[in-house]
Amino acid sequence: FMISGGAPLSRAIAEFFHAADILILEAYGLTETSAGSTGNRLEKFKFGTVGRPLKGVEIRIAEDGEILIRGRNIMQGYYNLPDATAEALDADGWLHTGDIGHLDADGYLAITDRKKDIIVTAGGKNIAPQNIEGMLKASCQYVSQAVMLGDRRPFCVALITVNEETTGKWARERGIDFKDYADLTSRPEVRELIQEAIEAVNARLASYERIKDFALLDHDFSQATGELTPKMSIKRKVVEQRHRDVLEGFYRETVAQL
After folding, report:
1. Could you give the angle at the alpha carbon of 48 between the alpha carbons of 42 and 54, nearest 5°?
2. Residue ranges matching CATH 2.30.38.10 in the chain
3. Which CATH superfamily is domain 2-115 in?
4. Is 177 helix (H, G, I), strand (E, B) or coil?
């Protein structure tokens, strides 16, 4: 067996490896919790979760969905940073992790998003974008990256990059000529392909969670473009700022139609 941590493990990937008789147990912890705080066990595990609390660790979910952790494994504070310590640790000893999640009936913890990434729509609805982005990428082999946005907006939109290998193969098989990545993403047939994938995901979501419009970008995210971290995580604020004109266009068009 193997243990996975440090980044989310797709349930589909865990199930795929398990079908090949390779068990991957997902665990969860932070530097502030002296590493591991929860974990799946050989004899007790649930894919799609990071397991149950380790011995001596308490987990509680705050009213806003934030994961709180308490126990002897929690740090005493950040060195010479009293304000940061007060923000992270409350008077009752709970560490505010900044992660959003929930506990199921059996006490298994599932992490859905980062608190700072939660979208609060103009109508006051809370949306966890990474969960929906993950659904789209898992269900569509042609999507490389997806960034869902809509904080304080009337509806949600998405910036999409395509997988050049799979999408290019799909296009060539249908006689669709293209010169490069940007040309590929400009093809109306490719937009229709991604639109179908988005509609399939939308059908599984509440109305306020649905992606109402999207743009296919003319490049994929990378460290070179400054849109991915060395861990290949999306720099959401960078992406949002860099493509602000595209985002503003979504909402200008909607207002013009009203």
Report:
1. 50
2. 2-115
3. Luciferase; Domain 3 (2.30.38.10)
4. coil
Q: Indicate the residue type of 103.
A: L
Distance CA 97, CA 95 (A): 6
CATH 3.30.300.30 intervals, the chain: 119-257
Q: Taking residues 193-208, what's their average pLDDT? A: 96
- Report the predicted TM-score, pTM, of the whole model to 2 decimal places: 0.72
Across the beta sheet with 109-114, the strand order is 57-61, 66-71, 95-103, 109-114
**CA-wise closest residue to 184 among 226, 142, 213, 148:** 142
DSSP string for 157-172: EEEEEE-HHHHHHHHH
* Tokens coding 39: 């974990």
- Output the CATH code of domain 119-257: 3.30.300.30
Note the pLDDT tens digit of each residue in 27-73: 999 999 998 999 999 999 999 999 999 999 999 999 888 999 999 99
pLDDT in tens, 113-126: 888 888 888 888 88
In DSSP notation, 185-240 reads: HT-HHHHHHHHHHHHHHHTTS-GGGSEEEEEE-SS---TTTTSB-TT--B-HHHHH
The one-character DSSP state at 76 is S
